[in-house]
Specification:
Strand content: 35-45%
Number of domains: 2
Largest sheet: 5 strands, mixed
CATH class of the largest domain: Alpha Beta
Number of strands: 10
Strand order of the largest sheet: 1-5-4-3-2
Distance between the termini: 33 Å
């Protein structure tokens, strides 16, 4: 399944479908939080503003680098890899529902989860002027 996140003006969705590059997509409103456009296996989630980490993307990367501790056993065994973490930035800007969607091994996965759970409050995503829950994915790289 392909998931895309695109920004549109919400007024474009007063109809039941939209055509993008000649492909017709059906539009649904989901739980008053976001628009979902469906065409086969493609889902497009539409928001006016994505969540923003305080200080921006570069500050988020520095936060992760500063707080990430390479597990001693993984370091000793020369284990490296990339853990993909999925989490929700809720309508209050809090990081919630943190989970591993691509794992390496338990100690690296647990460390990636720990660091993401430490994150400060974000600026929430918005649809119109209403704060909304938005799912976010981030890779955490462990390299020796």
């Amino acid at each position: 399944m392909l998931i895309l996140i695109i920004f549109f003006n919400r007024n474009a969705f007063s109809q039941n479908s939209i055509s993008i590059d000649g492909v017709k997509y059906n539009i649904e409103k989901k739980e008053n939080r976001s628009y979902i456009i469906k065409n086969g296996d493609t889902l497009i989630f539409v928001f006016d503003k994505m969540p923003k980490y305080p200080g921006g993307h570069d500050k988020m990367i520095r936060f992760i680098q500063k707080n990430l501790c390479y597990p001693k056993t993984a370091l000793k065994e020369n284990v490296s890899g990339q853990v993909i973490i999925k989490f929700m930035v809720n309508c209050k800007g809090l990081v919630d529902s943190v989970q591993v969607i691509e794992n390496v091994r338990k100690d690296l996965d647990d460390e990636a989860l720990r660091v993401i759970r430490l994150m400060p409050r974000w600026r929430p995503g918005k649809l119109g002027n209403k704060p909304i829950d938005v799912w976010y994915e981030i890779p955490i790289n462990f390299a020796i």
